[in-house]
Amino acid sequence: MLPQISSAVAISRVSSVWRSYAEISRFIRAAGIWNQHRPRNTRYHLKPQCLSNNRPFTSCRTTLDDNFPASVSGILEDYKKSLDFPQPTHEVSGLEKESPGKSVILHGYLGTRKDISKHMSFIPLQSKDLSYSVQLVSFAQGGDGKDKPVHLKVKTLNSHTPVVIRGVLKTRKPAKDNFISGMRMINNVEVELVDIQHLNEFPKDIIVTSETVFSPEQRHLQIRTNKELRDALLFRATVADICRHKLQERGFLEVETPLLFKSTPEGAREFLVPTRTKGLAYALPQSPQQYKQILMASGISKYFQVARCFRDEDLRADRQPEFTQLDLEMSFATGEEVMQQIETILRHLWKSMLNEDIPGTRFPKMSYHDAMSRYGSDKPDLRLGMEIYRIGHLLPVDLISKISPLLDPVVEVMKLSVSDNPRETRDFVNTFMGTPEAAPFLSNPEGQPGIFVYDSKLPLQGLQPFGFEAAEYVEDILDLEYGDLVVLQARKRVPFAGGSTTIGNLRLALHKAAVAGKYIPAPKGFEFLWITDFPLFSPTNDTDPGQGGSAGICSTHHPFTAPKSPEDVELLLTNPLAVKAEHYDIVVNGVELGGGSRRIHNAKVQEYVLRDILKMSEERLQDFRHLLDVLLAGCPPHAGIALGFDRLIAVMIGKESVRDVIAFPKSGKGEDLLVKAPNPLTREQLEMYHLQLKE
């Protein structure tokens, strides 16, 4: 007889959920069953039992020898039973087409049981994909008056337990609702329960109700209990299939490019992958950019890929450290041809998935400078209105000095129609200014916003500080109405750089607050826009790594982007910051769906940009030697784009965060809270990969 395992160990181990064969093995070995306590010449083997469609599921099993330890025997016996179960004769979704009296075997999950009496229970059976539900009926006794063991068994099983059931279809009176918990109800038939086999247990301590909110650590339960999330994943998969089909139809070849790449200074921070060879590491790709350019030089005329990309950057609602993009490239092509391809794909997606026609024959275009001037953003949401105008040259000096400490600032103005009641508008402003969202604008070193309410009861309708001429001008350009909010904001008199201005950010914050406060309705529809004519180079800053050159400038997009025109090529020699790029972003509703460009296909020009304009060190320049050698081998002109696939799906189904359309997203700190990644390196791993932690 085997010695007993410590009760504390047995209770804690047995009551937990077994997650893998390896865990069962570790438990058995930790208990010393195989090595220390197993009598010599004792063998454990499985005794097969017969499997018959006429016998209960529970009898169609194999059993363990009697001398197997009781605590482990129960665990493995239950597990073994779950390995042997019959295939379904029907899917729940197809039962409404079947005739009453037919015997069926179904797979699915139990819903919440409702006991009508001691002798009768109703239990929903949810389909495997949690899209359909059929009612099971369980009776304590059969027509012959004998007790039915299945009735007692079903009462021992918790909701959400995965099961196999055998039953007989019966006609039912249709229920009042066609849907239950978001699942379509099979309303013309129900299933009288004959037998049931549970395939695993669902713990009683996991409470699932319509009000239950599961944490990111329980992402599996979020997906399982949230139909909206499952629908988003289905929508995502369908869009990917449509994109693939549409691009293949148009002659594009899908090519998978490597995920183990090399470190190159394209513009974003990389994730490094150490190897066991001392001093050598891979880098995960920021994008397939260099590989797809190599494909263009390799004679592949049209390439695409649903690509995984990795960037170690600050996270926001629309960013993840690993993300997916729809990536494409075309040889012998210009940026205009790429834009036409994207417009075709987006029109097709909106029509097939949303049943919406995007108006117009082509998407409108706006230059980067105009977008920043008129909306304070390089990805403006045109649905909001609230266009920005320069007004500083008309304002009194004393007013400018009150809103900004700058000596010669640019002063801009915009309006927001909150209410036709000036008092309500003031209440809205006062509330907004007390929120955390207003803090960045109140602490802005270039000056706080000047806030005015257009009110006919006040001198110059509330614009008296503007002076007569400026007040009249503002009334005219903003088309002011009673109760409108008028906002002034100053900024430095320098060329636009980056993605937004202070007044542009304030525009979005005020509009969002007005919608949240129900002062104005949320914007509807979709407004597509191409932003073009970006600067090819921008001054370096403290937040973006850039390309690591010493010139004090970096590539705005990436260092492979081509100048827009022959005139811009000439400016490379004299004024690089004035060069416009053939770079284009596709924007919808204030979201940048993607960006692309025409590439530099000439190796000597590419090397000139890297060496002489960005002033990369010789060592960093050699990181691009492979690409320069490829371009030397007769690479044709080429252009491409990458759509942020996660953002695309989020926009299409109206989600504010890409986390709502990704199965297993990272948190705001870049962590997978379900699997607890990233995890600390062990001493063995540090030694294996020749790494050392800095104190």
From TrEMBL:
Any single Gene Ontology cellular-component annotation: mitochondrion
Swiss-Prot/TrEMBL GO biological process terms: aspartyl-tRNA aminoacylation
Keyword entries, A-Z: Aminoacyl-tRNA synthetase, ATP-binding, Ligase, Nucleotide-binding, Protein biosynthesis
Record SUPFAM superfamilies: Class II aaRS and biotin synthetases, Nucleic acid-binding proteins
Coiled coil regions in record: none
Top-rank lineage group of the source organism: Eukaryota
Pfam annotation, one family: tRNA-synt_2
GO terms for MF: aspartate-tRNA ligase activity; ATP binding
Family statement: Belongs to the class-II aminoacyl-tRNA synthetase family. Type 1 subfamily.
PANTHER family: ASPARTATE--TRNA LIGASE, MITOCHONDRIAL, ASPARTYL/LYSYL-TRNA SYNTHETASE
HAMAP family cross-referenced by the UniProt entry: Asp_tRNA_synth_type1 (MF_00044)
Protein known as: Aminoacyl-transfer RNA synthetases class-II family profile domain-containing protein
Organism per entry: Glonium stellatum
